[in-house]
Design goal:
Elements (H helix, E strand, L loop, with lengths): L3 E4 L2 E3 L2 E3 L4 E2 L2 E2 L4 E3 L2 E3 L4 E4 L7 H9 L7 E5 L5 H4 L2 H7 L4 E4 L1 H11 L4 E4 L5 E3 L4 E6 L9 E5 L4 E5 L18 H16 L3 H11 L6 E4 L9 H12 L4 E8 L5 H15 L3 E6 L5 H8 L2 E7 L2 E2 L2 E2 L1 H13 L5 E8 L5 H12 L2 E9 L4 H14 L2
Parallel strand pairs: 8-9, 9-10, 10-11, 15-16, 17-18, 17-19, 19-22, 22-23
Antiparallel strand pairs: 1-2, 2-7, 3-6, 4-5, 7-8, 12-13, 13-14, 14-15, 20-21
Helix pairs in contact: 5-7, 5-9, 6-7, 8-12, 10-11
Length: 387
């Protein structure tokens, strides 16, 4: 449990959660990390902390550098408990320390932990000094909670970015130039799609407000630390937050007796012939959070379900509920599915599309088992509508 030096007098003292596989319904197959940072100066500062059950890991790392009782400041960029969970124990060890947070952050910490610690409220543009080093703050509300903020250390050119630029990824290789970049970017994209996407406008604002900062290192609260590929991840954030889409289509469905699946494959053929990158996901075998990673830049989303008891399949309803909550914008949509005696499925899928403000291109329903002629009709009709 050693601390990891990032720059002189700046250390990563977080914890690795190797076994985490689910984060609020988001599948985390590679675990995660909770990144806390220790700065040694005349006054000692801890930036963020870890989940409560990994508090001992964080404290062991801190003790390789300094006694935790000597901590003077605890900067809390975000009060969610995967970031703040160890603060109560830190404050027991260092009761005279000052907790620094945004106004909403202090309000949230008090609501979470029912403690009246020494609090210091900061606003965007505020600064404070620990001796040789200074810190400034940028409040970024709703990226992705009302209390979120960024902390910038100009003397070391480090941006402590909290959830921005993070990834759910556990690794003992803590920098972006010593871990496979394709995996980091995959996890960063999945993280953005499943957590940050509803707040695109706030992300764009934060990117604009921070663009003039001189940054060598971006130190997020989850995943690896960026010290080489900063331009790449910032550029991807600009694209993701602006709802840019590629020539790409997703087909997401569930099926009872294979009829809706036949329709899904017919739709797949049309997009393939039109030169789209096409992804097809049977919800019996694919997790919704993995699908969202691909939806982040897809132009078309096609959703299919048979009718089940005057409703759509629970897996499809679950996916659509999850998807609309994440608020993707500017998508084109297609509803499809088979039915027996009640064609309720298409209306329900279209209702979700309306809630998401998607442009519905067409919808296709077939009674019982689709014949070849019916499938060919779908393909011919859809081929005319796809540009």
């Amino acid at each position: 449990m050693k601390a990891l030096q990032i720059k002189e007098n700046v250390y990563w003292v977080g914890a690795l959660d190797w076994e985490l596989r689910n984060f609020h319904g988001y599948k985390t197959q590679r675990g995660s990390s909770y990144n806390a940072y220790l700065i040694i100066d005349e006054k000692i500062t801890l930036i963020d902390s870890v989940k409560h059950y990994l508090t001992d890991d964080m404290l062991k790392r801190i003790r390789t550098i300094v006694d935790p009782s000597k901590i003077d400041y605890v900067i809390c960029n975000h009060s969610e408990m995967d970031h703040s969970g160890a603060i109560p124990e830190v404050m027991k060890l260092a009761p005279n320390a000052t907790v620094i947070a945004s106004p909403k952050g202090i309000e949230s910490l008090k609501a979470h932990y029912k403690q009246d610690w020494n609090f210091k409220t900061v606003q965007s543009g505020d600064t404070f000094s620990t001796g040789k080093y200074s810190f400034s703050f940028l409040l970024t509300p709703m990226v992705h909670w009302p209390d979120n903020m960024l902390t910038y250390m100009p003397d070391k050119k480090i941006l402590f970015s909290n959830d921005a630029f993070g990834q759910h990824l556990a690794s003992s290789e803590m920098f972006d130039d010593v871990y496979p970049l394709d995996i980091i970017m995959e996890e960063a994209r999945k993280y953005y799609a499943n957590i940050v996407m509803p707040y695109n406008s706030q992300v764009r604002k934060a990117l604009e407000e921070s663009k003039n900062l001189d940054i060598d290192i971006i130190a997020p609260s989850h995943g690896v630390i960026w010290r080489k590929h900063l331009d790449k991840i910032i550029e991807e954030y600009k694209k993701w937050s602006s709802n840019q889409t590629d020539k790409k289509a997703l087909i997401v469905y569930d099926t009872m007796w294979g009829s809706t699946e036949k329709m899904a494959k017919a739709i797949y053929e049309v997009f393939e012939e039109k030169g789209f990158r096409v992804y097809i996901f049977n919800l019996q075998h694919n997790h919704i959070s993995d699908i969202m990673e691909e939806l982040i830049n897809a132009e078309y989303i096609c959703v299919g379900s048979p009718t089940l008891n005057k409703n759509i399949m629970p897996t499809v309803a679950g996916f659509l509920t999850y998807m609309t909550g994440l608020s993707p914008k500017n998508r084109k949509a297609i509803a499809f599915g088979s039915y027996g005696w009640a064609a309720q499925n298409i209306k329900q899928i279209e209702a979700y599309f309306a809630e998401a403000d998607f442009q519905v291109i067409d919808s296709y329903k077939i009674n019982y088992i689709p014949g070849e002629e019916q499938l060919e009709t779908i393909k011919a009709t859809l081929s005319e509508k796809i540009k």
